[in-house]
């Protein structure tokens, strides 16, 4: 009568006796396993090499992905620095809204960008960024605790863009002083690409854009 061996017991035995294959080295070449890679039976040694190569391949892919992310982050950091520098070099406060918008378009390659400001000082009442904004748009801006990203669903703010009819996705950044509950403006980015700004994208970088833009434009407030 043949006794059926328990595979778990065999595995446990091998773990408890790590020198088993040293004492029975011939088994490494005689034991055959099915290879999912080669599609045929291979020795235990060959199968171990396949597993090792697969682990190395996965690690290489992971390393390549990390390097890609690092390069993208480095590129974004350089662009953000260039944009911030342009704001710092603007001597006339009246030019800040135009510089902010133009540099965002040029440096970050955003197809359309605009900004609307309110509650500015009397000296800046004629600035191009001070245009009619409805109460609904102001309430919307006040309600944003973080940048809004997603499809353009006929938002009023999207109509402020030069070619609003072509805009498929938008990012809207509230402008406020520190943690003030009320915003003093809204920065709008638009793209004809529906996947440029999506509801599931990270907004940490856009938040920094909004905070830096707010700090730069705060000097225009009354």
UniProtKB/TrEMBL annotation:
SUPFAM superfamilies on file = GAF domain-like (SSF55781)
- Which Pfam families does the entry link to? DUF484
Q: What domain of life does the UniProt record list for this protein's source?
A: Bacteria
Coiled-coil annotated residue ranges, if any:
42-69
Keywords from UniProt, A to Z, are:
Coiled coil
PANTHER family (alphabetical): DUF484 DOMAIN-CONTAINING PROTEIN
Q: What's the protein name?
A: DUF484 family protein
> What organism is recorded for this protein?
Herbaspirillum seropedicae (strain SmR1)
- Give the taxonomic lineage as stored in the record: Bacteria, Pseudomonadati, Pseudomonadota, Betaproteobacteria, Burkholderiales
């Amino acid at each position: 009568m043949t006794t059926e061996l328990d595979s778990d017991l065999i595995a446990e035995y091998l773990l408890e006796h790590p020198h088993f294959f040293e004492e029975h080295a011939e088994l490494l070449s005689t034991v055959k396993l099915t290879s999912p890679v080669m599609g045929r039976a291979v020795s235990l040694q060959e199968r171990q090499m396949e597993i090792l190569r697969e682990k190395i391949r996965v690690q290489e892919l992971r390393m390549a992905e990390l390097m890609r992310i690092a390069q993208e982050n480095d590129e974004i950091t350089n662009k953000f620095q260039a944009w911030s520098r342009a704001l710092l070099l603007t001597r006339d406060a009246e030019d800040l809204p135009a510089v902010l918008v133009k540099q965002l378009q040029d440096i970050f390659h955003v197809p359309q960008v605009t900004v609307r400001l309110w509650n500015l000082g009397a000296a800046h009442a004629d600035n191009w960024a001070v245009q009619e904004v409805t109460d609904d748009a102001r309430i919307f801006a006040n309600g944003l605790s973080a940048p809004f990203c997603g499809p353009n669903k006929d938002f009023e703010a999207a109509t402020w863009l030069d070619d609003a009819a072509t805009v498929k996705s938008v990012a809207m950044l509230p402008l406020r002083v520190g943690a003030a509950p009320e915003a003093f403006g809204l920065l709008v980015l638009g793209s004809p690409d529906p996947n440029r700004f999506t509801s599931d994208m990270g907004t940490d970088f856009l938040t920094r854009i909004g905070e830096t833009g707010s700090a730069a434009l705060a000097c225009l407030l009354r």
